[in-house]
Structures are given as structure tokens and as C-alpha cells.
Amino acid sequence: MNGLEIGLGATVVGILAHAVVLRHLPKRWRLLALPLLLLTAYAAFVLLAVTPGDSGRWVEAFVALTLTLSLGFAYALMLIGVLYDSPTLALVKRIESYGTAGMPVGAFEQFVADHPFVQSRLDALMAAGEIRLEGGEMRLTGKATHLLRIADMYRTLRGGTSQSG
Amino acid sequence: MFGLIAAAFGMAIALVADVAVSRAGGSRIAAYGASFLAGFAAALIAVVAITPQLSFAPVATAVLAYGAWWFIFLNLVQALESSIRVRLVNELRIAGGRMPWSVLQQRYSDTVLLGLRLNRLLAGGAVVERNGCLHVVSPGLKLIAGIFRFLKVSLLGQDSEFGAKHK
């Protein structure tokens, strides 16, 4: 098997295994389990498919690993949209639930009450250690600001304003 | 290996195209479209040009790797533009790393954030108001909402992280 076949095989097996166990996992393990399953599948494929004496085996193994992690990361980003509601899509779903009559504008308030997005995201940031609540103040603790600085630099390159968000 | 190198070249061209279209005043959609197509073409041309014995494997590797990397790029850029978590962290960063909880609650209430999303949908024409009622008119948005609803029910057994609350 070449790197493409190993990488695709490991990705498919890893993602299928994750899909099977996903709903049974505790919330904090739902994303963490994915790279573990992908790497396990990758290791199994490499052990089974790569011939020890083959001179090109390291290149093929590297190609396979890169494909597995790249496709797996893309799947993880899609999965975040599944695990955490998108405010826009949640609003679309609520409007659609009213059928052809449409959602009365006054019902927007109830939609807001039913979808505490800010608290959900704050809980996730606190669980990840990016922020903490201390003495009535919310404080930044994590490394997320580095990513925001990179985002600001890219935004400046594109010709936009320098602030993220 | 040639497939990965070609995909990396394609991503570099995709980033240049995104920056170029944005600086020329193009919309985000136009920039993303130009970025994807330019990068895809560059990856294909590169894999054909650099692979000594062209076969299916390096071309497929280039296409898959480029597709995954461009999707990651799109999601990261979009998240940095509109993610609630990013907004919250950025707000704290601007305030010097700390902010009274009551002030953060005022600035980032669900009413404010979801109101902004609704206004964006109305301004873009994806949602319209008729006789005091809101209607989704964008087929693309309906399709995406349907796909994600299917995935949530299939993978998680529920269609919302907030439980099944309906009218």
C-alpha cells in the first residue's frame, strides 16, 4: 500500500470508529478521542501495510500521516459545528420550524431565552483554561491571544482593520 | 511526497489570492472563491509539473491534502471573524486581560449577539420579514442547516446542544 492508501484507510477507519463511540463519550472526550483513534488506525495500517525492508517506507509513512492528520483535522472542524450549535443555523432552524407562516418577530425573544450561547461558550473557555472568573472579574489566562495576534496580522495583510472578532 | 509538495504550493497561491482579492476590495465570498480556485489550479499544475512518473496517487494526494488544508484555512479565518469564543477572548484582550463580569455580561448578552446574527441575515437577504414574520429564503442556508441537523441527530442523538426545545 502507498501513502495515499494508508492515509485514506486510516482516516476512514478512525472517523468511523469515532462516529460509533461519539454519543457515548463524556463531553470533554468527544473531540480529544478523535486524534487518538486516528493515530491508532494509522499505526495499525502502517504495521500491516508497510514492508520493513522497503526503502521508500518512511516517505510513504510520512505522506500517510500527513493525510490522516489533515483530513482528520478537517473532520474535527466540521465536528465542532455538530457538537456546538451555530447561532445562525439555530436561528434558521427555529424560523423554519414555523413552516410557511414564518416566525413572528416577537418569538425572537423566546429563541434567545432557549439558546444561552454566551454562557455555553464561557463554560467551554473556562473548561479549556483560557479564562477564569476571579473576584467578580473575568480574566484571560490562556494562549489564545497568540492566535488572535496572528489573525490580526493576516487581517492587516488583507487590508482590513487590525482587530479580530 | 510530490502530491504534498504540490498541495503546499497550492495553499501558498490560495493565501496570496485571498489577500489580493481582499485588498482589491472584493467581498469575502469572492475572496474565498478566488482563493480556492487559484490554489486548486496551482496544486494540479504543480503536481503534473514536478512528478517524474505521473500517476493517480500523487494527484489524489495533492487534491485531498489541498482540500483539507483549504477547508482548515476557511474555518480558522471564519472563526476568527465571527466566533463567539473569539469575540469574548478578544474583548478581554483589548481590556488588558481582565474585565468585571457584570460589564462582560452587558456587552455580550445573547440578545445582543443573536440580534447581530439576525440583522446580518436580514441585511444579506437570506432571511426576510413579511407581515411581521421572518422567513428563510436562502436555499443554500436551508441546505446547510438541514445537513448539520442530520449530522447532529445521527452522531449525537439530539439536534441541539441545548436540548430539544421547540415552540
Characterization of this structure:
The complex is a heterodimer of chains A (165) and B (167). With 165 residues, chain A is mostly helical. Chain A contains 7 helices and 3 strands. Chain A has a two-stranded antiparallel ribbon with strand order 2-3. The longest helix of chain A is centred in the middle third of the chain and has 27 residues, at 57-83. Chain B has a two-stranded antiparallel sheet with strand order 2-3. Chain B is extended. Chain B has a domain at 2-82. Helix content of chain B is 74%, strand content 7%. The longest helix of chain B has 27 residues, at 56-82. The chains are: A mainly alpha (165), B mainly alpha (167). Strand 1 of chain A pairs antiparallel with strand 3 (133-136) of chain B, so a sheet runs across the interface.
Radius of gyration of chain B: 21 Å
What form of chain B results from the Cα inertia axes? extended
Task: For the record, give the distance between the C-alpha atoms at the N and C termini of chain A, rounded to a whole number.
Answer: 45 Å
Strand content of chain A: 5-15%
**What proportion strand of chain B?**
5-15%
User: Helix/strand/pairing class of chain B, anyone?
Assistant: mainly alpha
Q: Sketch the major β-sheet of chain A.
A: 2 strands, antiparallel
Average predicted local confidence, pLDDT of chain A: 86
Radius of gyration of chain A: 22 Å
- Biggest sheet: strand arrangement of chain B: 2-3
In helices, the fraction of residues of chain B equals over 70%
Q: Give, in spatial order, the strands making up the sheet with the most strands of chain A.
A: 2-3
Succession of helices and strands of chain A: HHHHEHHEEH
Question: N-to-C SSE series of chain B?
Answer: HHHHEHHEEH
SSE diagram, text form:
The complex is a heterodimer of chains A (165) and B (167).
Chain A lengths: L2 H19 L7 H21 L7 H27 L3 H10 L6 E2 L3 H7 L2 H11 L3 E4 L2 E4 L3 H15 L7
Antiparallel strand pairs in A: 2-3
Helix pairs in contact in A: 1-2, 1-3, 2-3
Chain B lengths: L1 H22 L4 H23 L5 H27 L1 H11 L3 E3 H7 L2 H15 L2 E4 L2 E4 L2 H18 L11
Antiparallel strand pairs in B: 2-3
Helix pairs in contact in B: 1-2, 1-3, 2-3
